[in-house]
Design goal:
Elements (H helix, E strand, L loop, with lengths): L15 E11 L5 E11 L3 E5 L6 H8 L7 E6 L2 E2 L4 H6 L1 E4 L11 H11 L6 H10 L15 H13 L5 E5 L7 H16 L3 E5 L3 H7 L2 E6 L2 E7 H8 L1 E8 L15 E3 L5 E7 L7 H10 L4 E8 L2 H10 L7
Parallel strand pairs: 3-8, 3-9, 6-7, 7-8
Antiparallel strand pairs: 1-2, 1-4, 4-5, 9-10, 11-13, 11-14, 12-13
Helix pairs in contact: 3-5
Keywords: ATP-binding, Nucleotide-binding, Transport
InterPro entries: AAA+_ATPase (IPR003593), ABC_transporter-like_ATP-bd (IPR003439), ABC_transporter-like_CS (IPR017871), ABC_transporter_ATP-binding (IPR050763), P-loop_NTPase (IPR027417)
GO molecular function: ATP binding; ATP hydrolysis activity
Length: 325
């Protein structure tokens, strides 16, 4: 068997800044942390990776960043094989890990300068100043990291990850345990980075942040990537729209004249909920309202609602297997 470098991914993935093929990770004890991951991460997008604890999100990021070795498969970052051309691949990547591990006795600025030099980048004081100002750290640039609060240390980790101007930025649970002000600063910076062309991959437990920020959503469950989809498409395909009608008078049951419609009656008999397909051109609402009138059912209020990304995510990870999209 030849040990030469594997071929570069095909032209179909040419717009991808990260290209992952048949990636798997099995630990010595036999635990399969990742299985057959195939994913192209587009240049300049924000991709949110969602999944329960232990699903494989951090393992996947660690392999792409060269921290953990894959059992099988290939990863290219900015055109470089992460195993055969590690230094060039890793230089394109910035990582903000979950854990707070920083050089406690170093000053903030010294840490950033060292990190930038580690990736072979020439000094650029203006860039480092901008990063520190964007993260409200400029006044702390000469402070030793050991003297900073937890929130400030988290800011330093983000600054370190950006010190060498990476094309790809990984944010692994960046909002975990941080204050509202830092979260606001961080997402403001994410938007600016994306506008400047940086590709951002984030894992988060704050699904509302993924819903607001991401261009695409990937869901990992039990080591498998069960869906990757543009956020709007995912919410249209897997979301539900509902029309809730508050009735003038309570009903004991849904009458025969409304049989066959996707209707649910509340326990108190005062609310009817009609669920309709988000992909269908015909919602059926006009027909529903006509049939309600024929049955002499009056309502005093109606309101519509759509599934949130959180509801879609919960439904996806509850499914036993297969791609539901």
């Amino acid at each position: 068997m030849s040990h030469s470098a594997p071929p570069v991914p095909d032209a179909a993935a040419s717009d991808a800044i990260v290209s992952i093929r048949n990636l798997g990770k099995t630990y010595a004890g036999g635990f399969e942390a990742l299985r057959d991951i195939n994913l192209d991460i587009r240049r300049g997008e924000i991709l949110a990776l969602l999944g329960p604890n232990g699903a494989g999100k951090t393992t996947l990021i660690s392999i792409i960043c060269g921290i953990v070795n894959a059992t099988r498969g290939t990863v290219y970052a900015d055109g470089h094989d992460i195993r055969h051309d590690y230094r060039a691949a890793r230089a394109a990547i910035g990582l903000v890990p979950q854990e707070l591990h920083t050089d406690a006795f170093e000053s903030v600025m010294a840490t950033l300068k060292f990190s930038r030099g580690l990736f072979g980048r020439p000094p650029n004081p203006a860039h480092l100043e901008k990063v520190l100002r964007d993260l409200s750290l400029w006044d702390k640039r000469n402070a030793k990291i050991m003297t900073l609060s937890g929130g400030m240390k988290r800011r330093v980790l983000i600054a370190k990850a950006l010190s060498h101007e990476p094309k790809i930025l990984f944010l692994d649970e960046p909002s975990a345990g941080v204050d509202v002000e830092l979260r606001h600063d961080m997402w403001q910076m994410v938007r600016q980075l994306r506008e400047s062309g940086t590709t951002i991959i984030l894992t988060t437990h704050y699904i509302e942040e993924a819903e607001e920020m991401a261009d695409r959503i990937g869901v990992i469950n039990k080591g498998a990537l069960i869906v990757v989809e543009d956020k709007a498409v995912l919410m249209r395909k897997l979301g539900k729209k509902q029309l809730t009608l508050s009735l003038q008078q309570a009903m004991e049951r849904i009458p025969e004249g409304l049989a066959g419609l996707p209707l649910e009656l509340s326990e108190d008999g005062l609310t009817l909920v009609y669920t309709f397909d988000t992909q269908s051109e015909e919602t059926g609402i006009a027909g529903l309202l006509r049939r309600l009138g024929e049955q002499g059912i009056d309502f005093k209020d109606l309101r519509s609602s759509e599934s949130s990304l959180e509801e879609i995510f919960v439904n996806l990870v509850r499914k036993p297997k297969g791609n539901p999209a």
